[in-house]
């Protein structure tokens, strides 16, 4: 008797193949050609990409990648995602086939999906590794799997983990990672930093909370009205982590803005300046929207934000690493996967 495996498709954003201009340009071109990322009419996007973004950003972004590139292992985002893949394979065992696909670059979502189809998995659980749902990251990853499956003769049963911003397994892993750093450093300020999004994309999300959104106030506790809003999910993650850590004082901030349009704030660097003005000197930053360390954590926070903190007169600066392949996160992710498995009751009468 052949026992079919349950497929698991982990998806992360992707990263350049090398830290040189050619590879970074190719990565940025693919990434920023995505209509869910730069959500403008196609001709505007292409003009912007070729006349502004690629000529002016490639050099700067290449330097940034070079500053975090591991001589042996390459891009942190890739090797941490691969370590997580291997850990999850061990944790889930023989009944599962786990693959990793990147939305941009290699290994592609397509090559990972092909492996799962070839293994004739009875069902596939799609896990975009973005805890808070955004159209730009999670939506784009899910849509990409769908496009690949569209022409296929057989499409397996699919489960999609669209978000896990409040999943107890994710929160527990975050707390176990952050707690020892707070204990050791006793910071006077704690920031939870999330990837920002253009306000336009938050508004397009169509969440009910838009009607009453106070853009300069924290989002209310999660409810049916704001359940689908990226910003509200970020605030809820922070609330849950803080509750479990037993801390009352913390700030939610957003990073990685691009261009001149309005993005979700408060901005990381503005918040740091205000903390210094308020007499704070010992800062701890955790970045719960990234499950794997990457350019945005290691370079933007670990190098640039740290430099700013020191220039402003700050003393201690602690960046909590991402979940990466922490054992508790591997176990937690395995639980998230198992909770999404369809336990089909097979009635013997139905088997012909
Ligand atoms: C939390 C997930 C992410 C969301 C949402 C997201 C939105 C988003 N990003 C850009 C533009 C850039 N992002 C870049 C790097 C980058 N972004 C994420 C995650 C999310 N992005 C990650 C994990 C990374 C790092 C990848 C790595 O190789 O380590 C970059 C490239 C670097 C740079 O030039 O600054 C760009 C550009 C937009 C426009 C956007 C939403 C609209
Ligand atoms: Fe990004």
From TrEMBL:
Pathways per UniProt: Porphyrin-containing compound metabolism; protoheme biosynthesis; protoheme from protoporphyrin-IX: step 1/1
Family: Belongs to the ferrochelatase family.
Gene3D superfamilies: 3.40.50.1400
Class of enzymatic activity (EC top level): lyase
CDD domains, per the entry: Ferrochelatase_C, Ferrochelatase_N
GO cellular component: cytoplasm
EC id: 4.98.1.1
Subcellular location(s) per record: Cytoplasm
Record field: catalytic activity: heme b + 2 H(+) = protoporphyrin IX + Fe(2+); Fe-coproporphyrin III + 2 H(+) = coproporphyrin III + Fe(2+)
Residue numbers binding Fe(2+): 195, 296
GO annotation, biological process: heme biosynthetic process
Highest taxon of the lineage: Bacteria
UniProt entry keywords in alphabetical sequence: Cytoplasm, Heme biosynthesis, Iron, Lyase, Metal-binding, Porphyrin biosynthesis
KW Nucleotide-binding (keyword) present: no
GO molecular function, one term: metal ion binding
Principal location: cytoplasm
Full protein name: Ferrochelatase
Key word Cytoplasm present: yes
Chain's role: Catalyzes the ferrous insertion into protoporphyrin IX.
């Amino acid at each position: 008797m052949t026992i079919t495996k349950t497929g698991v498709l982990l998806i992360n954003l992707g990263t350049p193949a090398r830290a040189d201009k050619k590879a970074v340009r190719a990565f940025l071109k693919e990434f920023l050609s995505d209509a869910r990322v730069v959500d403008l009419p196609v001709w505007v996007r292409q003009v912007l990409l070729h006349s502004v973004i690629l000529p002016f950003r490639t050099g700067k972004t290449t330097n940034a990648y070079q500053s975090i590139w591991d001589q042996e292992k390459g891009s942190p985002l890739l090797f941490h995602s691969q370590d997580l893949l291997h850990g999850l394979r061990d944790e889930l065992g023989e009944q599962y086939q786990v693959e990793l696909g990147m939305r941009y670059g290699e290994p592609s979502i397509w090559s990972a999906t092909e492996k799962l189809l070839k293994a004739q998995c009875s069902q596939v659980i799609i896990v975009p590794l973005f805890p808070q749902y955004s159209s730009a990251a999670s939506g784009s990853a899910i849509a990409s799997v769908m496009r690949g499956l569209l022409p296929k003769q057989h499409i397996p049963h699919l489960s999609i983990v669209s978000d896990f911003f409040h999943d107890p397994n994710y929160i527990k892993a975050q707390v176990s990672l952050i707690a020892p750093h707070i204990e050791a450093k006793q910071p006077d300020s704690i920031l939870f930093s999330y990837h920002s999004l253009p306000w336009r994309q938050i508004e397009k999300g169509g969440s009910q909370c838009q009607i009453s959104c106070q853009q300069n106030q924290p989002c209310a506790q999660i409810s049916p009205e704001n359940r689908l809003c990226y910003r509200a999910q970020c605030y809820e993650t922070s609330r849950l982590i803080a509750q479990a850590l037993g801390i009352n004082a913390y700030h939610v901030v957003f990073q990685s803005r691009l261009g001149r349009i309005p993005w979700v704030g408060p901005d990381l660097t503005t918040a740091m300046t205000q903390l210094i003005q308020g007499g704070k000197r010992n800062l701890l930053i955790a970045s719960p929207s990234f499950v794997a360390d990457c350019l945005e954590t290691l370079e933007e926070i670990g190098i640039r934000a740290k430099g700013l903190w020191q220039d402003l007169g700050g003393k201690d600066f602690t960046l909590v690493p991402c979940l990466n392949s922490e054992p508790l996160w591997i176990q937690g992710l395995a639980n998230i996967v198992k909770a999404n498995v369809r336990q089909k009751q097979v009635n013997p009468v139905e088997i012909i």
